[in-house]
Amino acid sequence: MLRYDIDRVLEKIGGAKKIGLQLPNGLRFKSIEIAKIFEDKGFDVFVSGESCYGACDIDLELLKEVDYLLHFCHTPIVEMEGVVYVPCFYDLELDVEEIAKLKIKEKRIALISTAQYTPKLKELKEIMESFGHDVELRKGVGRVKLEGQVLGCNYSVLKNTKADAVLFVGDGLFHAVGASIYSKKKVYTYSPITREFRVVSNEDFIKKRYLKISGVLDKHKAAIIVSTKSGQKRLSLALKLKKLAKERGKDVDILVLNEVSPQKLENFPYEFYVNTACPRITYDDANLFKKTILTPQEFEIALGLRDWEDYMIDEIL
Ligand code: SF4
Q: 73, CA 20 to 30 Å: which among 12, 146, 289, 309?
């Protein structure tokens, strides 16, 4: 079960009249329940129907209309007056016997997870140490705020890791694959909810990305996408890439938009795109777009500025 500290929020927003709620997709099914908590306390509640990718994605229009915008399930990225982040954590028991059975051969292990599981990492560290592992539990830099926390755009917790392998605690493969490309270590993934444990391979992911890069080598008209979302805007990176591309004979524009979606890219004459907004759009949503979308680092490979062997994951610090 996900828990969030409503008392702390109420303390912060005391005296306010109008509040906005911004909920990520995975929590939207609780909008009625959460809105009622605040309505019962006398607030006028407005639920945002705009996207909520992460803490980087603030509904600025709604923020203008309310005293506070409550941003659920994320740790702070964009510090802005009126925005209150409400982190959510999983309330679950770790099964020591099950963890004892995980077949992790390496002695030195780095623990990482998404924010929702981070409160469990200290306990997991102690359990694994009792089984003879040396366990690394550190905090990264920039937009990650919690020990062991990774984001789809930030794996800095693994920078210069001394671990022989990484254990990702959480759901899905996206972060685990990202961690394996970033750290170049063996990565295990364990979901305390489904109890699934596996070794992650990044081979398929990299093969697919190499195919995307190869596909644009003979193409010349591109747009570099910049998102206006507060925590995704990388205008200077776009300008730098444009200059490098122009010097190499490419015809490149900078395309500015808030939501990067297939519909928004319709009718433009560009042969491919370079996405400086959230890296998940490039990696996870690649098949939704008609034309190829590369990360900035993949574009550097296409321009001959980076070696293919030096493939790296896109990172926003
Ligand atoms: S840029 Fe993407 S991966 Fe990074 S915090 Fe925002 S939504 Fe998450």
A: 289
Is the pTM higher than 0.85? The answer reads yes
> Rounded distance, CA 280 to CA 32, Å?
28
Condensed to tens digits (0 to 9), the pLDDT of residues 113-170 reads 999 999 889 999 999 999 999 999 999 999 999 999 999 999 999 999 999 999 999 9
The residue whose CA is least distant from atom 4 of ligand 1 is: 153
Domains, the chain, in order of start with CATH, read 2-88 (3.40.50.11840), 96-201 (3.40.50.11850), 204-310 (3.40.50.11860)
* 3-state helix/strand/coil string of 226-258: EECCCCCCCHHHHHHHHHHHHHCCCEEEEEEEC
CA of 153 to the centre of ligand 1 (A): 6
Probe residue for ligand 1, chosen from 153, 230, 259, 281 as the CB with the greatest number of ligand atoms within 8 Å: 153
Nearest protein Cα to ligand 1, atom 8: 54
Contact 35, 49 (CB under 8 A): no
